[in-house]
Amino acid sequence: MRALTWQGREHVSVEDVPDPRVEEPTDAVIRVTSTAICGSDLHLYGVLGMFLDRGDVLGHEAMGVVEEVGPEAGDLKIGDRVVVPFNIACGRCWMCERGLQTQCETTQVRSQDKGAALFGYTRLYGQVPGGQAQYLRVPQAHYGPVVVPHDGAPDEKYLYLSDVVPTAWQAVEYADVPEGGSVVVLGLGPIGQMSARIARHRGAGLVVGIDMVPERRAMAERHGVRTIDPSAVDDLRSVVLDLTGGRGPDSVVDAVGMEAHGSPVAETTQKVVGLLPDAVAAPLTERAGTDRLAALYTAFSLVRRGGTVSLSGVYGGAKDPLPMMQLFDKQLTIRMGQANVRRWTDDVLPLVQDPADPLGVLDLRTHRVPLEKAPEAYRTFQRKEDGCIKVVLDPWDDTAA
Question: Which of 65, 106, 147, 224 lies deepest, with the highest CB count within 10 Å?
Fold first, then answer.
């Protein structure tokens, strides 16, 4: 089959790799009909290469049709149309029973002291081949895949159940926005876009999105979000205070993460470490790595006293400096973590299926291209060129535009 593989820092290519097969009784194999590029994939593309091996298949947002099932794959049947959550969980262990599927005790990568295995996401998370491919082996298929109808709807109606929608839902849940309250969303990439829409849907009175990219702000504004270009104001905090009665927002969602603009020293450090041999870079990153923290510091500055900061942007630093005096003095609550996708499926599936499309899932994808053009799409997405907000890859259509 054809699959998108990691070949080096900012170098990915589509190659022929072996077809996946059922290896465990709870496995399934799906024919991937759509797969997406996530902002987290860009971390692998540019920063976290020391945890990848040449030839690793990337991607963790995929859906398709079941082609093969193991004898213990539950009710899953050949021919089912399914969306595959990015985290791999059993649904039966102590953690899964408590809605912490990202900490699944069956798939925890204990050798790396990490949580549940993830598709297409480095040695740290199990080195499971990812979904930017024509076929995908799905472990724990008795629990993970979400069956959706063969209703003629485009894949994009359901694809984001793999990551974007549940991640954004959890971000807003963790943000604890009061009914009629205020929330600021930092970063209007796919997760920020959906977080802002979900916050409005769930009753926030004021939703403010902050991003420097005009196309991202324009998309958010189509969904009733008030936006700010931080590069166009002298004092972002003063602007936000003015919008919130001088108090600050009840909640802030950081949808940016480790590669925030405005952190030049950390950015340089990341680039230098990325050029070191893996044997040096990997332990250095695990034990002493730092993130670009501009967005995180902005969240702490903006949120009101006694408010909540919710982190959905990925952070990977081991020695990140935190302003503990500020956090303690402002009495902030901070919640974070990978999305427990199956915990939120029952909440979000009806919204995705609703013909009225209340979350605007059909207004997120800006580019759909053949899998063969994935390397160009990675570059475009990373550089925020051509109005690129969300890329969907078609593994089978070489003519997709």
Answer: 106
pLDDT on residue 397: 84
Q: CA-to-CA distance for 65 and 82, rounded, in angstroms?
A: 6
> What is the 3-state composition of the chain as percent helix, strand, coil, each rounded to the nearest 5?
35, 20, 45
Beta carbons within 8 Å of 109's beta carbon, 6+ residues apart: 115, 116, 117, 124, 125, 126
Residue 179 has which token pair?
Answer: 């009914």
pLDDT, average across residues 351-370 = 97
Tell me the pLDDT tens digit for each residue of 51-84.
899 999 999 999 999 999 999 999 999 999 999 9
| Contact (CB, 8 A) for 64 and 82 | yes
Cα 178 to Cα 196: distance, rounded to the nearest angstrom = 14
Coil vs helix vs strand at 349: helix
User: Within 10 A of 142 (CB to CB), how many other CB atoms are there?
Assistant: 20
* Interatomic CA distance for residues 57 and 266, integer angstroms: 28
**Position with higher pLDDT, 30 vs 48:** 30
Place of tokens 């791999």: 88
Write the pLDDT tens digit of every residue in 291-306: 578 889 999 999 999 9
CA distance 169 to 8: 33
| Total residues found in the chain within this entry | 401
Strand ranges in 85-191 using DSSP code E only, listed in sequence order: 135-138, 146-148, 182-186
Cβ–Cβ < 8 Å for 311, 334: yes
Which value, in Å, is the radius of gyration of the alpha carbons in the chain? Answer: 20
**Cα–Cα distance between 380 and 42 in angstroms, integer?**
11
β-pair type (61-69, 81-84): antiparallel
